Amino acid sequence: MQAKAAVALAPYMVVLTVTTGLVEAASLLTLGPVFTAMQTGNVLFLGFGLVGEGGLSVAAPAVSLGAFVAGAVIGARLETRLEADRHRWFVIALLVEALLVAVAAGTAWGLHPVHRAPTARHLATIAVLSTAMGIRNVTSLRVRVPDLPTTLVTRAMTALMAGSALGHDALLARGRAATARRAASVGAMFAGGLAGAAWVHAGWPVAGLLLVASAAVLLVAVAYVPRPRLYTD
Fold first, then answer.
1. Which of 37, 55, 132, 190 has a CA-to-CA distance to 141 between 20 and 30 Å?
2. What is d(CA 65, CA 5) in angstroms, rounded to the nearest whole number?
3. HEC states along the chain?
4. Rounded Cα gap, residues 60 and 70, in angstroms
5. pLDDT by residue for the chain (233 residues), tens digit each?
6. How far is CA 211 from CA 34, 97, 105, 217, 233, in A?
7. For residues 210 and 100, what is the distance between their CA atoms, to the nearest angstrom?
8. What angle, rounded to 10 degrees, do the helices at 59-84 and 89-107 form?
């Protein structure tokens, strides 16, 4: 994919990063604790749970990891096939993601938050969300917008500080546009997590939070429709 086309996608990826914060707020604060997009946390949760430390569920991270892997495989095959057949793979992938998050909202309808022992419906919601996030990660990798992977901010935060006047790393100081993308990545994740946590704190249903995330992804897909098709290199 041409660099200019990837950079033009930056505003869309910022919105998708916000939705990751919303989804992870729902996952971590009401379904597990468990992550559905940031699988590093689940690898650790699974290890802690297997030892029996911290009162953490083994089932929740195990289900999330398995569903995420399935989503990544599905996303890779789906998006590769769509692009090969000259379909609008980016838009369709986002539509599939939005649909899955909406299905998760339906599965979570009426669920109460849990913090140690998720029920079968909690695990089903985790599975659907993790599948959606597995697909999202493939989408983000294929698009390759610099500094905006949409599901993690560690690298963006590191590059932001290392390339700043404080870090003074010439290799990572790539101009104002790169700095803006890195700051947007961190800020968008924070904003999504903050909004999601505020939603949960207010006692509003987790299903509603997931519907908001689904609607945001859907809006990104619709907003991209008038733009040219994406082709990977």
1. 190
2. 32
3. CCHHHHHHCHHHHHHHHHHHHHHHHHHHHHHCCCCCCCHHHHHHHHHHHHHCCCCCCCHHHHHHHHHHHHHHHHHHHHHHHHHHCCCCHHHHHHHHHHHHHHHHHHHCCCCCCCCCCCCHHHHHHHHHHHHHHHHHHHHHHHHCCCCCCCCCCHHHHHHHHHCCCCCCCCCCCCCHHHHHHHHHHHHHHHHHHHHHHHHHHCCCCHHHHHHHHHHHHHHHHHHHCCCCCCCCC
4. 16
5. 555 666 789 999 999 999 999 999 999 999 989 999 999 999 999 999 999 888 888 999 999 999 999 999 999 999 999 999 999 999 999 999 999 999 999 999 999 998 878 999 999 999 999 999 999 999 999 998 988 999 989 888 888 888 777 776 677 667 788 888 999 999 999 999 999 999 999 999 999 999 999 999 999 999 999 998 888 87
6. 19, 12, 6, 10, 34
7. 10
8. 150
Q: Take residue 153 and report the two structure tokens written for it.
A: 């901010």
Give every CB contact of residue 125 below 8 A, 6+ residues apart in sequence: 31, 104, 107, 108, 111
The amino acid occupying position 41 is G
Decide: 57 and 190 in contact? Cβ < 8 Å. Answer: no
Angle (nearest 5°) at CA 115 between 63 and 20: 60
